[in-house]
Design a protein that fits this description.
- The chain is globular, with a radius of gyration of 16 Å.
- Helix 4 links the parallel strand 3 and strand 4.
- Helix 3 runs parallel beside helix 4.
- The protein has one domain.
- It is built from five helices and five strands, in the order ββαααβαβαβ.
- It has 158 residues and is of the alpha/beta class.
- The protein has a five-stranded mixed β-sheet, with helices on one face.
């Protein structure tokens, strides 16, 4: 397979340790209007500092959008080959749509010995999916949100 069609799946990094993960582009692959897109996104720093990460994330985003079958097949095959105990979705980027989440769930269901984790701001997508089916037990979905800024109206000041 040509390298421009291969999904980049990381075997880990300094922060995560040896945890396999896949990422897409921060901001461009996140829900519209999220506050972190205006400079508070931690992944934007990596985008600036690490050209290889920038290229890999952009390529992954392109494959996920234009050929989701290949994207998820490559991820599933990599998990089947390596048999990780843990897998993290989206160190950068987010769940693109309900079909994307459905494929994430399918991979988790087919690999019950792997614990999957995703942090997301795509609340509407996860809620829409859960209206039609349950998330696999080995996929932890953690809703993340930016707290109101201290001193803004409605802020608790905590």
């Amino acid at each position: 397979m040509q390298s421009n069609k291969r999904v980049t799946i990381s075997r880990g990094n300094r922060k995560l340790g040896a945890i396999m993960n896949v990422s897409t582009e921060p901001v461009r692959c996140c829900p519209n209007g999220i506050p972190c897109a205006k400079g508070g996104c931690y992944a934007l720093k990596s985008l600036r500092l690490y050209p290889q990460a920038r290229k890999a994330w952009a390529k992954n985003a392109r494959i996920a959008r234009t050929n989701p079958r290949s994207y998820f097949s490559q991820i599933a095959n990599s998990i089947a080959d390596r048999r990780p105990t843990h897998f993290r979705w989206h160190v950068a980027g987010d769940i693109l749509n309900v079909d994307y989440l459905r494929q994430m769930c399918s991979i988790a269901a087919h690999h019950p010995r792997t614990q999957f984790l995703v942090f997301t701001k795509a609340f509407d997508i996860v809620n829409a999916y859960e209206n039609t089916g349950a998330l696999p037990r080995n996929l932890a979905v953690i809703f993340s949100a930016w707290p109101p800024r201290f001193g803004q109206e409605g802020s608790s000041g905590l």
